[in-house]
Amino acid sequence: MAEALKLIAGLGNPGPAYERTRHNAGFWFVDELARSHGGSFRHDPKLNADTCQITVEGRALWLMKPMGFMNRSGQPLARLANFYKIARPSILVVHDELDLPPGVARLKRGGGHGGHNGLRDIIAQCGGNDFLRLRLGIGHPGTAAEVVDYVLRKAPSSEQQLIERALDDALRVLPLVVRDEFERAMQTLHTRAPA
User: Which sign does the torsion angle of CA 9, 13, 16, 19 carry?
Assistant: First the structure.
């Protein structure tokens, strides 16, 4: 039996300089989720994270944005999860994904970090990788040497529109995830016509 979803963590970098960069796609998702459900983020200095609570499908959900930089995402998440006794399988981590093109969103259970520094730190700090992921495609620049500059730049407007469409697609299937219908959510999201 799958554990009920209790926490959604969107990954990104804090501050206005990074706000619209590709690496902040996870922040964009939880920001929109909070907005559409009447939530308002507040900074929690003890966690070094912005958090809020919303209700989806009659269930209370924590939303969080770790406010260390991407490679320090794990400690705030681990602290909140430990304090509220939230098991890893009840956590959904939302992050940008180089290996998917803009316009594509994919759900998955568990797995490695795939070179993503935010996921790497979460796995280390939380002691395992059996959390849920929502991967938001941002495309790949072509070579590994270009990746850092690429993820820390704004996408051109044509790509940004595709990313926002994928965000909308993912937001539409979230109620299924909350209702413990993860496989159905995956099937619905993954069979959408690509942008």
Answer: negative
Residue 37 falls in the annotated catalytic set = no
Tens-digit pLDDT profile for residues 47-62 = 999 999 999 999 999 9
Within the chain, how many helices (H) and strands (E) appear? Answer: 6, 7
Q: Where residue 155 falls among pLDDT bands split at 50, 70, 90?
A: very high
Cβ 159 vs Cβ 98: under 8 Å: no
Nearest to 181 by CA among 55, 37, 61, 2: 2
Quick one: pLDDT at residue 61?
96
Active-site choice (23, 43, 140, 190):
23
Taking the C-alpha atoms of residue 182 and residue 56, their distance in angstroms, rounded to an integer, is 15
Rg (CA), the chain: 15
At residue 160, the 3 state secondary structure works out as helix
